[in-house]
Amino acid sequence: IRFFGEKKILEGKKMVITAGGTVERIDPVRYLTNDSSGKMGIALAEVAQSMGADVTLIAGKTSVPVPSGIRVVKVESAQDMLEAVMERFDDSDVIIKAAAVADYRPLERAQQKIKKKSEEMTLTLIKNTDILQTIGQRKTKQFIVGFAAETENVEEHALDKLRRKHCDLIVANDVTQEGAGFGTDTNVVRIYDAAGLVDILPIMSKLGVARELLLRIAERMAKGAE
Ligand code: CTP
Ligand code: CA
């Protein structure tokens, strides 16, 4: 109802959106995760669907429920998320990676609850595969959008990620800014493409950011198809 009257500018587009934080198991009762609420990815899924897209939301841990009426694939770890994305990759027209993927996972996952022993313990972590980079390398027709959460040198880091991961657009947010980042209902973002800054958006709701971003995606896809 919120999007009544939204133009169907993404009609028929197959879209995969990732949201939330990944959960990296240490043992059966413990894990590593992050503060991602999933709100940005969920907002994108809702608005994209209202614009006519055929949306699949691949969701890690979220602190808010996913609205009914959205097709959701629940995943736990970064490895699960990679598999879920790759399964749908060939068929997708647009992939938006709003999820906060853990950069590292425990090297070993204990089958039993780890018992406390010595005064110190060391947990060895190993790097997770970069999902965005993996799909960027395999990109054929897909329009790929990444996110970058930064605390400093936002533009430099965002553009570096965009180039390394072969994204069409990257949405950067400076998480030190009031109203931006994890858990909030608002966001403050800048959008970049390979040539540099595309847009500076003022503070707005995550639904508003989703709408602005999806309008630009639709516009660019239409131009690319001309
Ligand atoms: N990403 C991903 N797979 C990973 C890590 C990140 O797909 N293993 C994606 C995120 O979903 C996001 C983008 O890459 O769309 C940027 O994530 P970010 O954490 O900002 O960048 P990193 O490349 O992980 O670099 P760093 O954390 O060192 O800043
Ligand atoms: Ca990271």
Automatic annotation (TrEMBL):
Organism for this UniProt entry: Paenibacillus baimaensis
Reactions catalysed, as given in the entry: N-[(R)-4-phosphopantothenoyl]-L-cysteine + H(+) = (R)-4'-phosphopantetheine + CO2; (R)-4'-phosphopantothenate + L-cysteine + CTP = N-[(R)-4-phosphopantothenoyl]-L-cysteine + CMP + diphosphate + H(+)
Keyword Magnesium in record: yes
GO MF terms held by the record: phosphopantothenate--cysteine ligase activity; phosphopantothenoylcysteine decarboxylase activity
Binding site for CTP: 103, 113, 147, 161, 165
Name of the protein in its database record: Coenzyme A biosynthesis bifunctional protein CoaBC
Co-factor binding details: Binds 1 FMN per subunit.
Enzyme nomenclature, EC number: 4.1.1.36, 6.3.2.5
